Batch of 2 targets.
Target 1
Amino acid sequence: MRRGLLPVVGAVIADVARPPCACRPITIEPELTAFRRRVVGRTIVAIDRIGKRVVVRLSSNDCIIFEPRMTGLVLIADPPGAEHLRLRVDLEGFEQPLLFWDRRGLGSVRLLSPAEYAVRLGPEKIGPDALTLTAEQLQQALGGSQREIKPALLDQKRLAGVGNLYASEVLHLAGVHPQKRCDRMTTAQWRRVHEQLLHVLEEAILYEGSTLGDGTYRNALNQSGGYQNHHRVYDREGDLCRRCGQATIERIVQTQRSTFFCPACQTKR
DNA sequence: CATATGTCCTGAGAGC
DNA sequence: TGCTCTCAGGACATAT
């Protein structure tokens, strides 16, 4: 999503509007009048990412934080539908505005000053990023926990950027059972989890994400991803494991979230 | 402090 | 066919 938005770096914001929407409004902070006053005329100097959020850095040093959650999209293309368009950011000299579209409306858009950013998205709130931390940092972040590894991988305060789908995929390739307790993992197992964390995320980025059955995820140009065709366990309950070719994929629930795994490839030991 | 649970939202799909 | 019900999961507030 972030990479697809890079073409708007250098653009000047001309206006911001909240298109009329029959659905319940999402969180936009501050309210639109103040939001507009602080962004119109500013230049987009960078598009960054912190954990799962898109960070649009402005020449004022303020940042627009897009938090898409499951169904939110940040687009520089026509959205998937006319409904559920939540915010439009017009750019000088650009045909296409920057859009925030969110079918379920659990996402948000926030304009943060550097001081607000430091508090709300500081290291207390967002842990080291999954794409850049070392195996030692991963073990340091989660190794002392008594929780099961799979829910621990989703704790954004300790490790940023891993979602439910990818947690299952990573553990399958690492050969680690999702119910394995963090404090009972060996250093070799942490190294394998770290290795597959990078591998899965980099591959998923290469394929532009996973567009599941409901068709929600699209890249910044409103194109489908392709990684769903490479899933080894996610949403494959009852199907044959692609790794061992023997066992079938099982589904369990951990802290209210689905987990998929192969009972043969992923040992509890 | 460390974890777990309830909540928000909409539309797809299941089951009748 | 059309209705109701369940479920999907990311982050945060609240509970244990």
Target 2
Amino acid sequence: MMSEARKFGLRRFLRRLLDRSTLSAEEQHAILSLPGQVRSVRSRQDLVMPGERVEHAVLVVDGLCGRFDQMRDGSQQINAIYIAGDMCDIHSVASPRAGWGITTIASGTILLVPHEDINRLAVRYNNIALALWRDTTLDASILAKWVANAGRKDARSRLAHLFCEVGVRMERAGLDKRTHFRLDVTQARLSDVLGLTPVHVNRTLQSLRAEQVLSMDKHVVDIADWDALACIAEFDPAYLLLDGPLFRWKAGEDTEVALAS
Amino acid sequence: MMSEARKFGLRRFLRRLLDRSTLSAEEQHAILSLPGQVRSVRSRQDLVMPGERVEHAVLVVDGLCGRFDQMRDGSQQINAIYIAGDMCDIHSVASPRAGWGITTIASGTILLVPHEDINRLAVRYNNIALALWRDTTLDASILAKWVANAGRKDARSRLAHLFCEVGVRMERAGLDKRTHFRLDVTQARLSDVLGLTPVHVNRTLQSLRAEQVLSMDKHVVDIADWDALACIAEFDPAYLLLDGPLFRWKAGEDTEVALAS
DNA sequence: CGGATTATTGAGTAATATCAATCAGCGTGG
DNA sequence: CCACGCTGATTGATATTACTCAATAATCCG
């Protein structure tokens, strides 16, 4: 049932927020009570076009979404991958018009949550505002890492890094194991993520397979040697901000700021 | 005098916030009253090391700073450039430990603003919280564009895009003209920004100079043909979110959300 | 089964990196 | 004032990575 999907998606979203922020029972309840429109989506469906002004945020209930930028020659660059529980364009709540677009990478289910309702929560509960800000921070942190990877690493290392990142995020979200997960992408799509050619992605995958580091068959990634992969990738998960929930803001006029352990 | 530098920096910071957010007189005054420690910095001075936990945010009063990531082989990738008025690591207020580092690119003056005080303002004035979140959004938007540039554009186009971006940002900040500005970077530093080799940056600059599009002499960029440069860069400033101040949150328990025109 | 993607392979090419000099500016100590 | 040593800019020659084009094989899906 549709309403079930909504609850399910919001629970995943809440879980994700709780990874980095502490929310009271009331705040948690408020998140879970967010309204939203459930929608089934196929692969390669553009949800937000670049430059469009939006009035709702896209929460991935199930499947995969990506944020993309388009070049004049038609080529795409995907600059963020979102898995179940991620809210793709949380930013849009603060800045409703952005330069990017949102597309589905794999079929699945999404929940469209009106900005209006998210704003209402952020106003009433400033720790929700903080949690959302923190989520944007994570997004920026991942982007910063992607810039570094694109700028300074070769194809092997970039590919390896992507698998490490997605593995860890999947595992953290309770979706799969970091060494074995379903990643419903075609090699062409992978090339849009990594800024490579489909041909080159194919060859790079083969080289990793030949070295028994990882295999990708039928869109299932199987990492045989995590340490080797992390080494190739120079993967350091610090940028995923997984140290556990951080401090809260004290409510009201209190001028003291609570800092967690 | 040092205190003058503090005021000066905060005014620039406020001005920057007002480009995208509306703040009341009281809120503006609160920003300008932020405390902070002024510090003169030389070029190539690391202010925050990767992975370090910080307790203050860095505001660029004058000069240039950059956020960087470091590879195992020692090479650096600069994934963000900050000009006067920018607060480099606003994110750190929400997430005090990040994976990146902050370094100076050119000599100048910075202001270290304690997180504690920023948090205090964000708690008391939720529109300041919104403005800061929005600022993080802008940062993410720029990063997303850089990912796209690094992934899908060649050296010429990337270099051109950087100059367009910095020009527009400088002009917007009231520091210079977009077609003529001082950018105190060496070619080697530029290469760290663009993910290229110093040698290649040099040759690419020469090619742009040969075509009378732009020249860079003594660290002063002179753009002879802005349109040509923007065309080479495929520059569309939408991602800089310059449409003017956006909506405010209504204060207090009000459940209605104010949306600007 | 047949038409569509998607994956794979090969050969040749273009972009960028690498290595190694040389050159130019510039501050400093003699 | 000038020689020295430094950093940054420039150049040339070569190596390497990744792209392009084009074809074929495998898989998916109705």
